[in-house]
Amino acid sequence: MRVHENDPNRCVLIETAGRCFAQRGYERTTEAVIADCAGISEEEFSAHFSSRDEVFHAVSAAVFDTFMEAQRIPVRPGADPRTVLAEATAAFIETVYRFGRLFTLIEARAVVDPVVKEQMETAHGRILRRYIRFIEGLGQAGIATPCADPAVLARKLSEAQWSGAERLIDAPKDEQRRFIADITAASERFIGFGGSIDLTSRTAS
């Protein structure tokens, strides 16, 4: 989990809280539990966070930061867009696998917590816009013929990756890898890649 904070003690608390929430769930993870797991007093905890909700918001923000970083795939000049697509798809899905129960807990909290809901919508929106630009770039370059409007297609493919990965969080590694391969192949078909292609970094912003 990436934690963008200058205070190392706060960073440790966020990391520890993330593990506690993942292992115990939201209701059983109290401020006292987090403090104990971090090896500090509740007073020390309160010096960094005013409540369990506040530390959960910090945890979910760190998780979404990680998703955004995972999508920053460096694109080499002349890179095959299929490779870019495969790397970005794998990075996103593997991040879901990595966070596991914490990811599903954050999704559940987004239903009842407006702060988490906004965090999720913001992160998903930014990832979706990148995907749309990628598909639009392929179409404009004349090397792919998307089967639908790029915005609609990007949303459908993104939702399929998100929900499919979530279902396989506890699946065997080979099944998880097979899903990545299958969804990547399906994405290639729907995006409408042609034969031999060569595209520069402008399609993967």
Write the layout of secondary structure elements.
Layout: H1 8-24, H2 31-38, H3 42-48, H4 52-70, H5 81-99, H6 101-112, H7 114-140, H8 150-167, H9 173-191
Helix pairs in contact: 1-2, 1-4, 1-6, 4-5, 4-7, 5-8, 5-9, 6-7, 7-8, 8-9
Can you walk through the features of this model?
By secondary structure, this protein is mainly alpha-helical. The protein contains nine helices and no strands. The chain folds into two domains: 1-64, Arc Repressor Mutant, subunit A, CATH 1.10.10.60; 71-203, Orthogonal Bundle (Tetracycline Repressor, domain 2). 71% of the residues lie in helices and 0% in strands. The radius of gyration is 19 Å and the shape is elongated.
Please state the second-level CATH architecture of the largest domain: Orthogonal Bundle
**Termini, distance in Å?**
23 Å
Question: Which structural class do you get from the secondary structure elements?
Answer: mainly alpha
How many β strands by DSSP?
A: 0
Please tell me the overall pLDDT. Answer: 88
Radius of gyration: 19 Å
Percent range of helical residues: over 70%
The biggest sheet, with number of strands, parallel, antiparallel or mixed sense and barrel status, is:
none
Number of helices: 9
